[in-house]
Design a protein that fits this description.
By secondary structure, the chain is an all-alpha fold. The chain is built from 29 helices and no strands. The structure holds geranyl diphosphate.
Length: 610
């Protein structure tokens, strides 16, 4: 029988620590009129009661919500809105005539590939094809070439005493990149008796650049490779006492800014095509022409994909009730391009774009807008993962939750329909885990708790959301779905763990100044400062060292990986590389009017002049 509970009784129900830890909704839900009385009461606990009342739909629509303190992310708008994407862009490279031209050029490049003879020339050609972004056309030919060179290397026919530092370092990098086992001992010819690189090599700029790039594929405990990095970095930074060619100058400056191993393929291709390859002695005009055309044709395809995604994103109407959140569709699609650039991976790219945009929005609900009480309900809804659970949420959260629920279940349906595999539970679990990680950070924030760096990282390596994002991308690989690989990803293997650690730390290096300014949770840098009393700059250096060490661990895991396909490993590495790209100079995921705007123009909207 319904009866009216007094205001003070209601508060005692809400404040009772024992009841607070269990479901008190059932206790208070029948007391609608008492709750209504509370609506104008400014006492402690009112927000919580309001949340409870909302949960049971027992407030009239004209009841004003209590005034709650909300934050704003102060995010900049994305310069490219749906109207621009749909209507303002001409997409001339979509035309069949350009595709036919590209096919013809590809045929000529294939002929050229067959004619290149020397091993060093072949290695350089593979490197050029990769840097120009067209290697995906010639996977078979590249593997045949590398296989042949590797065999002769193993049998001691090449990379002997006559091999120079450049070709040795280039071979080392390409072998490791393509999964061939190669030891750091390959460099012993270039060391003196004390185990140091002979100082005379310092003047060999080409060799130094190749050695520098190779050193980033090192694993933990490789002393020669550590020495290689120190030696090559110091040599490249030295003022030149002799004139080098401009090609080496641009390569050297680029390498010192960020090594090739940490760069993303499409932005590297655009830079290499426009700024470097033409300066290379003996460059191939045919290859350059093909690379430019291919870049533009693929870019036109990306724009079509973005148009589809943008229609979907607009239809969600987030700008109305979730205007505090990042408008992250376009930048999320860029993550997709960086993770899976090859044309065949359209479905992966789209899945990444949708899921990263969703994760960004949910992250903003937790970090920026939601009250602690609302967030508890939100987390409970993700745990229950059903429509009934949604009733307890305020309107803006309902929109966010239902959009997410529909998007994820839509993906599960696509996979069930097209591949016959049921991944619904795996996806649901991933969201339940992520929301509970976000909730933990929100509780820390709202209670003012400052975790140590270790405690922070025990949550943050996962809250960076890579396991969830990768899983949603993985199920849309072009290959049939392999249940073992899905279970393996869900088990959070070391290779995934190190990818997450690196991305979390690069994210924190980029975003923490802004997040601290708006009063967010302490991130890795601040946790380390609290732990040790270090100043900010020293803490940043420490975190950068952790990133360097993380890469060595990750490289080692890649060499030992046996369960995941090559494409799946590459996707994982590419997400880590995308993190380096977005966060190198700040928060490139949240701030869309700086470097990211230029990146969007280059990768999505502006063709390369041909
Ligand atoms: C693939 C990835 C990493 C993308 C998901 C989108 C996302 C949450 C980005 C980081 O935002 P943030 O810097 O505000 O995150 P956090 O609050 O976790 O620091």
């Amino acid at each position: 029988m319904a009866y009216t509970m007094s205001t003070s009784s209601l508060f005692s129900v809400v404040s009772d620590p024992v009841r607070r830890n269990r479901n008190i909704f059932a206790d208070v839900a029948p007391h609608r009129s008492s709750l209504l009385t509370l609506r104008s009461d400014a006492t402690r606990g009112r927000k919580r009661l309001f949340a409870i009342a909302t949960r049971y739909n027992i407030l009239d629509s004209n009841v004003a919500a209590p005034v709650v303190e909300r934050h704003s992310g102060n995010y900049t708008d994305c310069a490219w809105n749906d109207d621009y994407i749909q209507y303002s862009m001409r997409n001339e490279y979509n035309d069949e005539k350009f595709k036919a031209q590209a096919e013809e050029l590809k045929r000529q490049v294939l002929v050229m590939l067959g004619r290149v003879e020397g091993q060093v020339e072949q290695l350089e050609l593979v490197d050029d094809l990769q840097r120009l972004g067209v290697a995906y056309h010639f996977d078979r030919e590249i593997e045949t070439m590398l296989n042949r060179i590797y065999k002769s290397y193993v049998h001691g026919e090449c990379l002997s005493d006559e091999a120079d530092l450049h070709s040795t370092a280039l071979a080392f990098r390409l072998f490791r990149q393509h999964g061939y086992l190669v030891s750091q001992d390959i460099f012993k010819l270039f060391l003196d008796d004390t185990g140091r690189f002979k100082p005379s090599f310092c003047a060999d700029i080409k060799g130094m650049i190749s050695l520098y790039e190779a050193s980033y594929l090192s694993t933990q405990g490789e002393a020669v490779m550590e020495e290689a990095l120190t030696f090559a970095t110091a040599s490249l930074k030295k003022p030149k006492d002799q004139l080098t060619d401009t090609y080496l100058d641009v390569l050297s400056a680029r390498a010192l800014d960020m090594p090739l191993h940490q760069r993303t393929a499409r932005s590297e291709a655009r830079w290499f095509i426009e700024e470097a390859y033409e300066k290379k002695p003996n460059m191939s005009p045919l290859l350059l022409q093909f690379a430019k055309l291919d870049f533009n044709v693929v870019q036109a395809m990306y724009l079509e994909e973005l148009r589809d995604l943008s229609r979907w994103w607009k239809s969600l109407g987030f700008e109305k009730d979730l205007s505090f959140a990042r408008d992250s569709l376009v930048v999320s699609y860029l993550w997709g391009i960086m993770a899976s650039p090859d044309p065949e991976y359209e479905a992966c790219r789209k899945a990444f774009a949708k899921i990263i945009a969703m994760v960004s929005t949910v992250d903003d609900v937790y970090d920026v807008y939601g009250t602690l009480e609302e967030l508890e309900l939100f987390t409970d809804t993700f745990k229950r993962w059903d429509i009934d659970a949604m009733k307890q949420l305020p309107h803006y959260m309902k929109k966010c939750y239902l959009a997410c629920y529909n998007c994820v279940n839509g993906m599960a349906y696509d996979v069930l329909n097209k591949k016959g595999s049921d991944v619904a539970l795996s996806l649901k679990n991933a969201w339940e885990i992520l929301s509970s990680l976000y909730m933990k950070e929100a509780r820390w924030f709202h209670s003012g708790y400052k975790p140590s760096l270790d405690e922070y990282m025990s949550n943050a390596w996962l809250s960076v959301s890579i396991p969830l994002c990768l899983l949603h991308g993985h199920i849309f690989d072009t290959k049939p779905l392999d249940g073992e690989q899905v279970r393996y990803l869900e088990s959070l293997p070391e290779i995934l763990k190190w990818s997450c650690v690196i991305l979390r730390l690069t994210d924190d290096l980029g975003t923490s100044p802004k997040e601290m300014a708006r009063g967010d949770n302490p991130k890795a840098i601040q946790c380390y400062m609290n732990d040790t009393g270090a100043l900010e700059q020293a803490a940043r250096e420490h975190v950068k060292t952790l990133v360097t060490e993380g890469w060595k661990e990750l490289n080692g895991c890649v060499m030992e990986e046996r369960t995941l396909s090559k494409a799946a490993v590459e996707r994982m590495l590419n997400l880590v590389r995308a993190g380096h790209c977005f966060y190198q100079h700040g928060d490139g995921h949240g701030v869309l009017d700086g470097d990211t705007k230029q990146l969007m123009s280059q990768l999505l909207f502006d063709p390369i002049p041909v």
